[in-house]
Amino acid sequence: MGSEAEAADGLVGVPDEFQRLWTPHRMAYIKAGPEPLREVCPFCEAPEKRDGESLIVARGLTAYVVLNLYPYNSGHLLVCPYRHIPTYDEATGEEVAEIGALTQTAMRVLRAVSRCDGFNIGMNQGAVAGAGVDAHLHQHVVPRWTSDANFFPIIAKTKALPQLLGEVRDAIAGAWPAS
Prior knowledge:
The chain is α+β, with helices and mostly antiparallel strands and 179 residues long. It contains eight helices and five strands. The chain has one domain (24-175): HIT family, subunit A.
């Protein structure tokens, strides 16, 4: 244990068996509450910013690929149409084709960059289905490794992410083939 943990031994309080994982960067999300997601769609706003600022790794004609701000695993990508539509059946044939092509490229790039063993790919459509942003269609591309499922997310409901989002974005964007 570090000196900070040792220094806490003398503080007032009742010790318990829980370990603490301090994540002060999440306070901005907590303080914002759910309202900003209702006022401004993050998937409509992202393409209006610079790619590095919005974590976009690739842009197509009708859809783009962005790093998930709250990833399940390092390299968790979202493939989003530019058009603000809630469900897959509202996408045009051109959007469906490009979402599919971008998903395939994302898989190839993630495999090359992160040496993942597999993927979870899917869409949660509607709040009842688990969509955090249910008003804008987006497909998840989650890289998986043989050893990535351990006690941490199961018991502690915590994911350990070994790289910062900016580093992951730069690696993926740098490996993305030119269009």
